[in-house]
Design brief:
Length: 127
């Protein structure tokens, strides 16, 4: 068979709709998250909501520098992922709260390093 005959044979063969959807699903399902964990909401919507939670926690945890940095960076990453979801407003709120918490950590670290305050001022003097 020459090349033209092969092309014509391939064009004539019918493809079922089920086979088409299976082919597209296998290409589109490139997530590393198991399907049972995704639930009703997509992963990006969950990231937007988690960003708000981590942003709120980062506003409180800036007192403990290492914890504040980790939580605020996690909130920033989740907020950036959540910006591509349907819940952009929550992602923006979480991103702003996380950035404010991140700035608060560095202001506290700068004040402690320059000797303006004792680094454990908030944890020892209040109790």
């Amino acid at each position: 068979m020459n090349e033209e005959q092969i092309d014509s044979v391939q064009k004539v063969l019918p493809v079922s709709p089920e086979q088409k959807t299976q082919d597209t699903e296998s290409v589109l399902n490139l997530s590393f998250i198991p399907p049972e964990l995704e639930g009703k909401r997509g992963i990006r919507e969950k990231c937007a909501i988690a960003s708000v939670v981590f942003g709120g926690i980062s506003l409180i945890s800036w007192v403990v520098m290492l914890l504040g940095i980790v939580i605020s960076l996690t909130g920033v990453v989740l907020g950036i992922i959540g910006l591509k979801s349907s819940q952009k407003r929550k992602a923006k709120i979480g991103l702003v709260l996380s950035v404010i918490g991140f700035i608060a950590v560095f202001l506290y670290a700068f004040a402690a390093a320059s000797g303006m305050i004792h680094y454990s001022y908030f944890t020892t003097q209040l109790f």
